[in-house]
């Protein structure tokens, strides 16, 4: 193997800025898709708890569809499919702003919402019925008991699986490079095809992914420990 | 939508076969089957390393599991794309690259499933095996692993569903599988992206729904068998 390592080649031609820009895009997409996923996921979980017939089926279908179809296919469906259904003016506006980012963010957020809803639902079911009955007897409305009593406890139980979902969401933002978004993986590919310094570029990108992932894992573990300690007091 | 299916079903089912490599839906399922089967022995080894009290087994396997959990599958695909030809010293096709990446990725996830299966067994199983004069390896092979693997069968089948979904990433490196076939159809038709990718999503949905039903079936079987054992003793 005649291969000389040359990390210096990555420091020219604005490559550091490209990598950092890619990392920022990845983080931005993670944050926005996370908000969408956790917001919608919580709403779906609560609606599911109401146990109304037609609504239940709709949510179950939503969850099944998003969990059984690959995320990449959802991204392609949004980016190519849904975009084609939009009125021309709106589509132009979206593309001007960055359709790759918007559509992959929506797709990733909606898919993760299905997983979050399921994790929250099983956490809510793990809370004893007496909690709801007690807060209802104390005069709180259904929604208030949900918000003040049930959900805070459910979130504490669900922190480990939700940390896992956050981590998966972060990793899955890399799929957006398939439709041409220059996020972290895309930036790495770009530099690789320009410099052929495959090993060096991938090492840098891998290290960045690992750093953020380990931080997320650590953060999740810390919050979980903190919340459990607070709950015991 | 139906006319797209009736015009292109052969391409979506087997790709260019027999005039080219096997592709389409068959390749998707085949890739997932081969990858998971090859990942299985590695998964067992990693799981044994993870529960080992010997440091030189524990630390490397734990590191591997955390690294794999912290990186996007796409990064493994690009690393494999770069490394596999160097290691075996000849150019390889996309399918081989994809299998190599999936084997590494799935090994780590299978390892965690198997590990949880081993740790869910009562400690008395290992102690009893050891007291009967079996060595640690014999106890693992004849007492612990058969039970752990049987009990985790549903989770491993769910992992197969995940693997089926993950093969869609082969699209990025032009592996001829289902998503790639759908993209080809889309490139021929040009004007019906929503229908084509909607059809693709429905295909994955149906396939994984059937596989999910299978998982439920196996789960129930195991549940019944377990309660029968409890009743007898």
Commentary on this structure:
The complex is a heterodimer of chains A (233) and B (233). Chain A is mainly α. Chain A contains nine helices and no strands. The longest helix of chain A is centred in the N-terminal third of the chain and has 36 residues. The N and C termini of chain A lie far apart (61 Å). The model of chain A has no long low-confidence stretch (mean pLDDT 92). Chain B has 233 residues and is mostly helical. Helices cover 82% and strands 0% of the residues of chain B. Chain B is built from ten helices and no strands. In chain B, helix 1 packs across helix 9, helix 2 packs antiparallel against helix 3 and helix 6 runs antiparallel to helix 7. The mean pLDDT of chain B is 93. At the A-B interface, helix 2, helix 3, helix 7, helix 8 and helix 9 of A face helix 3, helix 4, helix 8, helix 9 and helix 10 of B.
Structural descriptors:
heterodimer; A: 233 residues; 9 helices; 0% strand; B: 233 residues; mainly alpha; 10 helices; globular
Fraction of residues in H or I helices of chain A? over 70%
The succession of helices and strands of chain A, N to C, reads HHHHHHHHH
Main beta sheet of chain A: none
Strand content of chain A: under 5%
Number of helices of chain A: 9
N→C terminal distance of chain A: 61 Å
Percentage of residues in DSSP E strands of chain B = under 5%
- What pair of chains forms the biggest interface? A-B, 38 and 36 residues
Largest sheet entry of chain B: none
Tell me the overall shape of chain B.
globular
Per the principal axes of the C-alpha atoms, what is the gross shape of chain A?
globular
Q: What is the helical fraction of chain B, as a range of percent?
A: over 70%
Q: Assembly state here?
A: heterodimer
Low-confidence stretches of chain A: none
Mean pLDDT of chain A: 92
Average pLDDT score of chain B: 93
From N to C, what is the helix and strand string of chain B? HHHHHHHHHH
Structural class of chain B: mainly alpha
Distance between the termini of chain B: 57 Å
Radius of gyration of chain B: 21 Å
**Count of DSSP-assigned helices of chain B:** 10
């Amino acid at each position: 193997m005649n291969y000389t390592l040359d990390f210096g080649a990555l420091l020219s031609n604005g490559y550091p800025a490209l990598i950092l820009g890619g990392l920022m895009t990845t983080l931005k997409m993670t944050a926005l898709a996370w908000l969408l996923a956790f917001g919608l996921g919580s709403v779906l979980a609560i609606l599911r708890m109401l146990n109304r017939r037609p609504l239940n089926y709709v949510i179950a279908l939503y969850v099944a569809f998003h969990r059984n179809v690959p995320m990449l296919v959802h991204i392609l469906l949004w980016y190519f499919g849904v975009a084609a259904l939009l009125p021309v003016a709106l589509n132009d506006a979206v593309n001007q702003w960055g359709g790759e980012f918007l559509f992959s963010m929506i797709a990733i957020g909606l898919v993760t919402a299905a997983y979050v809803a399921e994790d929250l639902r099983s956490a809510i079911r793990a809370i004893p019925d007496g909690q709801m009955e007690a807060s209802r007897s104390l005069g709180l409305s259904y929604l208030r008991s949900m918000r003040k009593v049930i959900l805070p406890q459910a979130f504490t139980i669900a922190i480990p699986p939700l940390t896992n979902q956050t981590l998966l969401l972060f990793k899955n933002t890399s799929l957006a490079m398939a439709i041409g978004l220059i996020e972290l993986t895309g930036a790495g590919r770009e530099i690789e095809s320009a410099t052929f310094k495959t090993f060096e570029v991938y090492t840098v990108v891998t290290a960045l992914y690992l750093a953020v992932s380990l931080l997320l894992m650590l953060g999740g573990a810390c919050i979980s420990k903190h919340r459990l300690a607070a709950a015991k007091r | 939508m139906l006319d797209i299916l009736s015009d292109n079903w052969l391409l979506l089912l087997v790709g260019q076969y027999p005039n080219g490599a096997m592709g389409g839906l068959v390749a998707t399922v085949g890739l997932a089957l081969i990858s998971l089967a090859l990942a299985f022995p590695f998964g067992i080894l990693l799981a044994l390393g993870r529960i080992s009290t010997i440091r030189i087994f524990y630390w490397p396997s734990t590191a591997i599991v955390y690294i794999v959990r912290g990186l996007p599958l796409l990064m493994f695909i690009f690393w494999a794309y770069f490394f596999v030809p160097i290691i075996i010293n000849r150019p390889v096709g996309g399918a081989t690259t994809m299998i190599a990446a999936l084997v590494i990725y799935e090994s780590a996830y299978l390892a965690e499933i198997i590990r949880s299966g081993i740790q869910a067994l009562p400690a008395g199983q290992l102690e009893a095996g050891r007291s009967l004069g079996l060595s640690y390896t014999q106890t693992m092979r004849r007492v612990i692993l058969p039970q752990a693997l049987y009990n985790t069968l549903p989770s491993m089948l769910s992992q197969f569903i995940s693997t089926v979904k993950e093969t869609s990433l082969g699209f990025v490196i032009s592996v001829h599988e289902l998503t790639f076939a759908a993209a080809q159809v889309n490139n021929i038709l040009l004007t019906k992206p929503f229908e084509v990718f909607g059809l693709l999503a429905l295909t994955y949905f149906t396939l994984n729904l059937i596989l999910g039903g299978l998982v439920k079936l196996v789960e129930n079987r195991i549940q019944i068998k377990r309660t029968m054992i409890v009743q007898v003793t």
